[in-house]
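DM from R.C. (forwarded with permission)

"hey, sorry to bug you on a friday — could you get me a structure for this? deadline for the figure draft is monday and I only need the backbone to look sensible"
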Amino acid sequence: MKLLMSALAAATLAQAQYNTTAPLNKPPLESSLSYLEQGLEDNLAKTAYTLSQWTNGQIPEDCFNIANEEGQAPTDYETYEVTYSDCGDPWLFCYHKDSEVTIDSMASQFSQLPIQMRQWVRHVITVPSTDGHAFNSNGNIVFFRPVDDMVNVFVHETGHSLDLLGAYGFQLSDSDDWWNNYNQDPDVPDPYSAADALEDVAQNTVVATFNENVNGGFGTVEPNWGEVFHQYATVITVAAQSGEGNSIITPGENAQCSHRLTNSAPVNADGSATSRVRRDVGDVTLKFAEPIVVSPNAPTGRTNCQLSW
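My reply, with the result:
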């Protein structure tokens, strides 16, 4: 059974109700959400994994295209299959040889996302840079100058996938549910949340994930939690309603992946044509998880996200 967005959800995406990319006019509660990082690191358990590097000179097509768009040579990338203990199908990481952190750091941080969040990420890609920031493009998370302590960024960028690609059955940031609750709060979590509704939903995904996984919740570190309560509580509610057995944003007991975004096709990193008779072409088909079929009306392009550190 393929996970397919409902006709109602597709219609909702096709007929946008709100301007989700317009700046918001509410003040920030805090200067950033960096104060949530340690709680996320300490309370989201790491998932065991194994690494296997491709040696066939190939790279996933999405990584090839993003590398070129960012002025990087695809041949400077190493492709790793990262297989976690809670999913038989590996994730494909596209790791630049000059990345500022190790492939193990990237795989380990990603492992801390609950599996029902992680399965909405297609590829993880690193880009060497002089400044640290990230964006999400059709489920691919791209990190510029990645660091060792950015679990909150993984949560934020995955929050875009959950919102835009159909994890909730509709685009949360473009729904009456979101805006009605947003309008009840005097603040947004931080300045970046005020960029637009897309970023506000993603930042509130960070707050919601902290609240649901750290003992005592958001109020243990934020005395004025009520100023943004309706926003992060909305994420908590839809994540609980949409999860399989438990909330999307909390780990399940012995939970395994059930669905996955499909991998992009392997291509030759040097840009040459892929021969039909090659026997070393990477097999990227899903063997265990059912493929997520994203609605053709879903906004799958690159987000304007420039969350920085």
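R.C.: lifesaver. DSSP finds nine helices and twelve strands in the chain.
me: no worries. The longest strand covers residues 77-84.
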